[in-house]
Amino acid sequence: MRHVLSALVMNQPGVLAHISGMLASRAYNIDSLAVGPTENEKFSRMTFVVKGDDHVLDQVRKQLEKIVTVVRVVDYIQEEHVERDLMLIKVETKTRLERSELKELVDIFRGSIVDVSAGHVMIEMSGQERKIEAFIEAVRPFGILEMARTGRIALSRSNSMSSAIEVGDPTHSSDNVDQAV
């Protein structure tokens, strides 16, 4: 089973290395990882995609919650959320006809052409993983020259991970919250 986990962490040097090292040392495979700042400069959000059964997920959560710089961990499988991937892909175009056909595909998939040169087009695509995968398969016959993808990002449709932290959520059991605020 695939789980999308989000960890609100203190924005400090070495946090990513510490967390990824802990997961690697316990042989947990991370399928996807994205890290970035949040609306509060004190925190960063790390979003992981981990495959495994409930036991594996439980172990990953427990290990993450033991780390002092981790403030809160959420498993999005248990709540409504929006998740997206981002991709830049460079596709070969030898003729005007190919370029025109490629532009139609980009429009159908609601992507954007962000760079054009004599022999290729660079496309930006965002969406759910299956959309990204479908687009890759659709443009494969043109010739994929290069591709870069982000890790998955996600947000809950209803709850905010950091708003409760900022006001001092008394229901959170972790001591990490007190250290973060």
UniProtKB/TrEMBL annotation:
Transmembrane segments: none annotated. It catalyses: 2 pyruvate + H(+) = (2S)-2-acetolactate + CO2. SUPFAM superfamilies: ACT-like. PROSITE patterns: ACT. GO terms for biological process: isoleucine biosynthetic process; L-valine biosynthetic process. Catalyzes the conversion of 2 pyruvate molecules into acetolactate in the first common step of the biosynthetic pathway of the branched-amino acids such as leucine, isoleucine, and valine. This is Acetolactate synthase small subunit. It comes from Thalassoglobus neptunius.
